[in-house]
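Lab manual, section 2.4: Encoding a predicted structure.

Procedure: take the sequence of the chain (194 residues), apply the prediction step described in section 2.3, and record the output as structure tokens. A sample record is shown.
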Amino acid sequence: MQFHDVKFLLSVHSLKQLPDEDLPEIAFAGRSNVGKSSLMNKLIGRKGMVKVSGRPGKTQGLNYFLVDDKVHLVDLPGYGFAKVSKGMQDSWQGLITAYLENRTTLKCVVVILDIRHGPKNQDTQLLTWLRQQGIPYLPVYTKVDKLSGNERAKNARLLDAGHTISKEQRILFSAKSGLGRDELVQALDRFIEG
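Recorded output:
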């Protein structure tokens, strides 16, 4: 992926709004306020393309971005704490689950985890479910710039152990410094070509 031409395509709130399955898709998932939008903006090289919010639950649909007329990036609503009604959270979950289970062009789910926090039950549930469904995924530990080298290594080991992830399976990432961006692009290219 080159990210020469990136544009917001649409926000999907029901399965019938999904675009035709003619391009490979990479979905981005993570708990609310885990740094998903910042990661996506750093990845595509655009500061405000994916809206960043301090308010959990800002993303309320499946937001589609078209990259170089070749790939769709799909920003999923954050799970976990969000200042929206339980009914809305439940409808997101139904939409997300149906999307992940049935989308034939889905090549990978990038699962974003904040390296500053130990293993969280919701992340474990998502990773376990993706494994059970046979859906390819890529764990990315964000906000690594907020920890010293020793803390970073220790926390990464805790997340690896807590989620049964090997060091080779995941990427350390900083939206601030760009650490891990090239590695992420290469990994996503492999999933798309795979």
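Check your result against the sample. Residues 86-102 form the longest helix (17 residues).
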